[in-house]
Design brief:
Number of domains: 1
Strand content: under 5%
Distance between the termini: 38 Å
Helix content: over 70%
Number of strands: 0
Largest sheet: none
Structural class: mainly alpha
Radius of gyration: 22 Å
Shape: elongated
Length: 144
């Protein structure tokens, strides 16, 4: 009886669970997709802004910044760097700012006009939750 694991009441310590990479990969891929979407939207906005005589468009401020942060953050998050996680979260906050600026410029007239923005806002919130999840931190800290 010299081994403590053979004695009653003594057990091996529980092994730490392997971090699940699903939340991190989903956050990175969703961030990349949203970044590409915002890049295309930025290019289209610049084309439309050059053809019109409108004043300052707020989406020309927030959208390029969000696109850059989301694309870089998605790539860096897949490379297991913590700064990628921060870039994705800050980029999604820029997307929120862009969405709220669009809503303040173009006031919706009913719930039907709010369905599309609410769907995007829920998508933004899902990306933030995935990027800020504790399993994302564990996955970033474990090196292959």
């Amino acid at each position: 009886m010299s081994y403590p694991h053979n004695q009653p009441g003594h057990f091996y310590p529980a092994l730490a669970p392997r971090p699940n990479n699903a939340t991190t990969v989903l956050a990175a891929i969703f961030g990349l997709c949203l970044g590409v979407w915002f890049t295309l939207g930025t290019l289209a906005s610049y084309q439309l802004a050059s053809d019109s005589i409108l004043g300052t468009e707020t989406h020309l401020i927030y959208r390029p910044l969000a696109a850059l942060l989301l694309v870089l953050g998605g790539i860096l998050l897949l490379r297991r760097l913590t700064v990628g996680r921060v870039f994705v979260i800050v980029g999604v906050l820029g997307a929120f700012a862009d969405g709220f600026a669009d809503l303040s410029e173009y006031r919706p007239h009913g719930f039907a006009d709010m369905v599309f923005p609410l769907a995007f806002f829920s998508f933004y919130l899902a990306i933030i939750v995935l990027a800020a999840h504790p399993s994302t931190t564990r996955w970033i800290r474990t090196r292959p």
